[in-house]
Design the sequence.
């Protein structure tokens, strides 16, 4: 509703309220029952059953479930009673599901710890009595009392306002407080930031007081409407989930084709059909990397732990990897790239002398700030650890903070120049004046306001030069406050604008701005080096936004900035054509932010969005990975985000990108490690069957290799530290396959080596009696040798894939768990090959020392070949 177009009396009549007595308690109760509590609709949380079912919908997990069912069926159908294989597969599925649910549950607990547990209250007038109530109990028509420092609890139309200024950055992105006027009425369509007679839920009063009729509560507020947009964006699969689903489908197809071929070959060779079916099933099971989902989950979980130590809470596991593939970071300005805290940047007093406060304070500049601070209504308190806390209008806070840091306290100044009278700021005069006693007889009148407003009132001072300086400050997006004064020989008796705010002497100009966070510039430079484009999206004015963006290194030319009104004139196709050239979007709405994010996504970019306000929440939800601020961020923003930055530091997002890239790098290493063995298993069985050697493995042997020999070392691959130069590489394209950049070739080479050495071992063990004088060659001996060669070579292979450098150049101490897991896997494999009980369980037999020597030699062949390949490529680079 366009309540800002109506008078206060019309609003009072529409809501059947009163400007003095408010609603009656009985009427308020009726409306509460009709409209419900004044809070946002909460998203229904998934039950534990639903969480479990969702964790099982991953394609690779579904393949494992099918494999387990087949395994159980064949075990029962053949009456051998060996359920070991199926139980192992089910155990893997359960472990993966538990890890995922527990990790995301821990993230939600950490997030809830950030929420403010204090209930918000509101002051209303009911039955003519002023009372404080729970903000949830506010209803449309309530007469809301607005006081300095309070947070607005509902949308309302002002009926009274005295020096009222509201900080609306959480809703509009506008860093400057908005002056409110109860008498304001407009017939035009206005954005929220220009509706001077309205106050909105979630915004903060920084100055003045007033009263207002509540026009909207809960989801009917402007913030509620934005929160409602979140459900429209929906959720989509992350690039990692898409890649792993694609991988699962490919492997499943290969497994089915290979199994069908083996069955066909056996049928043509007149092998028993049931035996061939069992062999085909074992091959299908072997082709699926059972531990991949667990390894990916553990790798992501380890990334979560690392990020938590760097102040980033990951709410959804796949967001870790998605952030690593980000090619664009769309960032809110206020409170994210900037400090959301006005600071004095420059002071002018006379001539060409401009003091840059960051370089040092001069006596002339300090005199201007000292006198200006007298004309403020801030509150100075002692915070924790005796830290000075200044509360009030951000512009006045900046002035007082500057003198507190460089001179002495506001309290001392007030004692030296006690205030005796004042003319408060109002929307008509647009200035403020205070009168102070100066010495024993004289009195000082201080006036401050915008230079353009005060200029006609200055009769003394270098006004022409001040006009030039004011224009120069404005081009640098500085908010300029002019300070003037008059000296009276006796205390003024007529405290009026006509008497106090005329014939002023210009003292100086104060230029201030919401400054960038110190670490933001370096973080943006680091992101650019990594091929990541930083885009500023803000509700602030284009001049202010452009100045900050230029200082941060985001903007290089004015044509790269666009306003919300210009953006709204562009079609989606036109925006898609320009989006890569634009780096600053100013004066935008929440809907505009979603358009920008989706336009980047249509170009193939992976978009990370950072923000803290409710106005950022829809875009946070629509982006590939949303990053909310944990300290200044609203609950709506945190709920929409995938990642919450607990230190509100933009630089943290860039550190998180580096960790995300490391996670993706380690997942690719795990895929290389696992598939090298799995693909080789398919070729080993196929070639052996084609030659007529019979099946070189049983299903349970293949499962052991996949789970223990591959699984245990694979679990530790997720802890591998980042390789050098990871942030000097371009982002991974969203549509790039998991096997891109030569991964298929590496897997093919390694699978080929495994296939050759394993088949060679199987042949010697099965058909060559001369290998050992003590153990006769047989299919059982061949299977045992082939099993050990494949298991050991696969375990040792983990040291090949952990780095592109030689294994002799990478310290074992950089990932101790990898070394420990590999040793454990070797010990377990050796134990089951030597112990009679486990020999029977895994269809193994006793082999001679010569066979063990043969196993050792063949198992290190893959290492030797990989080292030669690495040496060749390193020589080429040199």
Sequence:
């Amino acid at each position: 509703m366009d309540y800002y177009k109506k008078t206060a009396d019309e609003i009072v009549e529409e809501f059947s309220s009163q400007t003095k007595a408010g609603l009656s308690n009985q009427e308020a109760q009726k409306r509460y029952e009709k409209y419900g509590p004044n809070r946002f609709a909460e998203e229904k949380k998934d039950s534990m059953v639903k969480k479990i079912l969702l964790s099982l919908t991953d394609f690779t997990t579904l393949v494992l479930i099918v494999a387990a069912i087949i395994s159980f069926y064949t075990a029962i159908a053949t009456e051998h009673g060996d359920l070991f294989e199926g139980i192992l597969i089910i155990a893997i599925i359960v472990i993966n599901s538990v890890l995922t649910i527990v990790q995301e549950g821990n993230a939600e607990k950490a997030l809830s710890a950030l929420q403010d547990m204090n209930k918000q209250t509101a002051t209303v007038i009911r039955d003519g009595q002023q009372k404080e109530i729970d903000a949830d109990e506010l209803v449309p028509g309530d007469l809301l009392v607005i006081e300095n420092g309070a947070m607005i609890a509902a949308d309302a139309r002002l009926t009274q306002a005295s020096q009222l200024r509201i900080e609306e950055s959480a809703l509009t992105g506008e860093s400057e407080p908005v002056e409110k006027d109860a008498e304001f009425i407009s017939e035009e369509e206005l954005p929220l930031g220009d509706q001077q007679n309205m106050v909105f839920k979630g915004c903060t009063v920084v100055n003045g007081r007033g009263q207002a009729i509540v026009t909207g509560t809960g989801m009917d507020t402007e913030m509620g409407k934005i929160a409602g947009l979140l459900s429209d964006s929906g959720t989509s699969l992350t690039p990692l989930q898409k890649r792993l689903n694609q991988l699962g489908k490919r492997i499943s197809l290969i497994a089915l084709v290979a199994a069908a071929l083996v069955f066909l070959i056996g049928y043509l060779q007149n092998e028993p059909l049931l035996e061939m079916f069992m062999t085909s099933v074992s091959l299908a099971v072997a082709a699926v990397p059972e531990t991949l989902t667990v390894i990916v989950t553990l790798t992501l979980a380890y990334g979560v732990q690392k990020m938590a130590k760097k102040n980033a809470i990951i709410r959804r596991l796949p967001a870790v990897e998605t952030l690593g593939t980000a090619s664009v970071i769309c960032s809110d300005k206020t409170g994210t790239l900037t400090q959301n805290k006005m600071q004095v940047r420059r002071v002018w007093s006379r001539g060409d002398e401009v003091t840059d406060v960051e370089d040092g304070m001069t006596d002339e500049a300090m005199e201007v700030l000292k006198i200006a601070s007298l004309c403020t209504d801030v509150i100075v308190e002692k915070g924790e650890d005796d830290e000075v806390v200044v509360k009030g209008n951000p512009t006045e806070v900046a002035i007082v903070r500057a003198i507190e840091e460089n001179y002495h306290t506001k309290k001392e100044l007030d004692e030296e120049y006690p205030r005796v009278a004042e003319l408060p700021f109002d929307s008509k005069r647009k200035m403020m004046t205070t009168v102070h006693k100066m010495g024993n007889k004289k009195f000082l009148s201080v006036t401050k306001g915008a230079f353009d407003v005060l200029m006609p009132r200055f009769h003394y001072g270098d006004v022409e030069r001040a006009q030039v300086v004011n224009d120069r400050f404005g081009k640098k997006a500085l908010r300029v406050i002019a300070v003037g004064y008059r000296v009276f020989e006796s205390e003024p008796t007529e405290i009026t604008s006509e008497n106090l705010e005329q014939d002023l002497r210009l003292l100086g100009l104060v230029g201030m701005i919401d400054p960038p966070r110190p670490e933001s510039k370096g973080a943006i430079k680091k992101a650019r080096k990594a091929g990541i484009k930083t885009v500023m999206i803000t509700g602030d004015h284009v001049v202010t936004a452009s100045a900050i963006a230029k200082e941060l290194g985001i903007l290089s030319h004015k044509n790269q900035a666009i306003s919300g009104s210009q953006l709204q004139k562009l079609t989606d196709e036109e925006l898609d054509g320009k989006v890569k050239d634009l780096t600053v979007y100013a004066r935008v709405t929440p809907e505009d932010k979603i358009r920008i994010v989706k336009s980047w996504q249509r170009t193939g970019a992976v978009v990370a969005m950072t923000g803290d306000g409710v106005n950022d929440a829809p875009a946070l939800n629509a982006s590939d990975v949303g990053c909310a601020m944990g300290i200044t961020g609203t609950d709506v923003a945190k709920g929409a985000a995938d990642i919450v930055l607990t230190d509100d530091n933009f630089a943290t997002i860039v550190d998180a990108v580096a960790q995300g890239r490391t996670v993706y790098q380690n997942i690719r290493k795990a895929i290389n490690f696992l598939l090298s063995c799995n693909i080789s298993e398919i070729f080993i069985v196929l070639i052996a069957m084609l030659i007529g050697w019979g099946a070189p493995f049983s299903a349970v042997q293949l499962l052991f290799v996949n789970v223990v020999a591959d699984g245990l070392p694979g679990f530790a691959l997720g802890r591998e530290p980042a390789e050098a130069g990871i942030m000097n590489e371009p982002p991974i394209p969203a549509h790039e396959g998991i096997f891109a950049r030569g991964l298929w070739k590496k897997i093919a080479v390694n699978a080929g080596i495994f296939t050759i050495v394993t088949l060679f071992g199987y042949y010697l063990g099965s058909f060559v009696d001369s290998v050992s004088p003590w153990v006769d060659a047989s299919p059982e001996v061949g299977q045992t040798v082939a099993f050990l060669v494949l298991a050991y070579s696969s375990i040792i292979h983990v040291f090949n894939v952990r780095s592109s450098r030689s294994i002799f150049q990478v310290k074992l101490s950089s990932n101790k768990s990898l070394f420990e897991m590999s040793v454990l896997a070797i010990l377990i494999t050796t134990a089951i090959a030597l112990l009679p009980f486990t020999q029977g369980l895994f269809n193994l037999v006793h082999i001679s020392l010569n066979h063990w020597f043969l196993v050792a030699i063949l198992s290190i062949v893959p290492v030797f070949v990989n080292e030669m390949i690495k040496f060749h490529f390193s020589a080429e680079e040199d």
Observations:
- The radius of gyration is 36 Å.
- The chain is about 50% helix and 15% strand.
